[in-house]
Design a protein that fits this description.
alpha+beta; 6-stranded mixed beta sheet; 7 helices; 18 strands
Length: about 325
């Protein structure tokens, strides 16, 4: 395949997708049946259900006092970075290179962590922290669903993971994709999503980046290159900065954008690129909270092979070495 023919084929693929699919995220006002949900899964198409979790105890009652009471004495794992940039491509002047940056992992008491999050939100000069809860929040389980019924029935499986995320507007999730059917539930504050389908790989300027991890040196966080690392393939193009790190086909991308309010539920299809920012609304007490449910994707069918084919064609026609 010549470079021109490969690039033309990818252009046609992305343009055809743009022509045949909506440029906005579909909004529902009631939960879909399992059959209706499977139609979205089969099309690999996102949707948002407005108010789907508005009756959850978590949505109605979570505030600073409630969380401090429920998690009193609980030790939690906190992902700490100086710029809210966990798991993201970051230029390091010290190494004169763009690195795949992972956070420093701290064990903290929940009350200390939440105090830090709130103070950072209200003080622009307060040192930033990124957030990540995984298995530390069992006392809060009764306040939310253990799974999403329409997804469990349709996919015939329990979620592989249920994650609680607490942070503030300083935290940004760099654009990436996951091999999970993702149900994302907003509890406190707002989340802002930028979404792109997996076939937009040729737009993302994926590069093999040396991995590094933030390490403590006294009170400071510094980047330390991982020992004997394998390079990490990661997207470096950001739709919010379209002229920076652009690839040859980046101009064809048509990102979808959606904001989740408290009680909203987003279906984020497997392998969709997503960037996430967040903001605190008035009365949110300086923190944002959300819960997401990861259901392992089914690799049968055309989705994964098509995404892999688009990736292979782009790599071949542009002479890139990505794994």
């Amino acid at each position: 395949m010549t470079q021109n023919s490969g690039q033309q084929a990818l252009e046609e693929l992305i343009n055809t997708f743009n022509e045949l699919n909506s440029q906005v995220v579909e909004e529902l006002h009631h939960e879909p049946s399992p059959l209706e949900f499977m139609r979205y899964v089969a099309r690999n198409t996102p949707f948002v259900i407005r108010g789907a979790a508005s009756s959850w105890k978590a949505t109605q009652e979570w505030n600073t006092a409630y969380l401090l009471s429920a998690l009193q004495g609980q030790s939690v794992n906190v992902a700490v970075t100086p710029y809210g940039n966990a798991d993201s491509p970051t230029y390091s002047p010290e190494h004169d290179a763009t690195l795949f940056v992972k956070p420093h992992q701290d064990e903290q008491q929940f009350d200390e962590f939440l105090k830090h999050v709130v103070e950072q939100e209200n003080d622009p000069d307060f040192p930033p922290t990124n957030d990540n809860f995984r298995d530390e929040y069992l006392p809060l389980f009764p306040d939310a669903y253990r799974d999403i019924p329409f997804a469990r029935i349709a996919l015939q499986k329990q979620p592989d993971a249920v994650n609680l995320w607490i942070g503030n507007s300083k935290s940004v999730t760099a654009i990436h994709k996951d091999n999970y059917e993702n149900i994302y539930v907003q509890i406190v504050g707002r989340k802002h999503f930028v979404l792109l389908p997996s076939l937009c790989y040729p737009c993302m300027n994926e590069k093999l980046l040396p991995p590094a991890t933030y390490c403590r040196q006294g009170q400071d966080l510094v980047l330390c290159l991982d020992e004997n690392p394998d390079p990490v393939p990661f997207a470096t193009w950001d739709p919010d900065q379209p002229d920076k790190n652009r690839d040859v086909l980046s101009h064809l991308a048509r990102p979808l954008r959606v904001t989740l309010e408290p009680g909203d539920m987003l279906y984020l299809p497997a392998m969709w690129y997503h960037k996430v920012t967040q903001s605190c609304a008035e009365g949110d007490e300086g923190f944002v909270a959300a819960i997401n449910y990861w259901y392992d994707m089914d690799f049968a069918g055309p989705l994964y092979p098509l995404a892999s084919f688009a990736r292979a064609v782009h790599v071949e026609t542009n002479g890139k070495s990505s794994s």
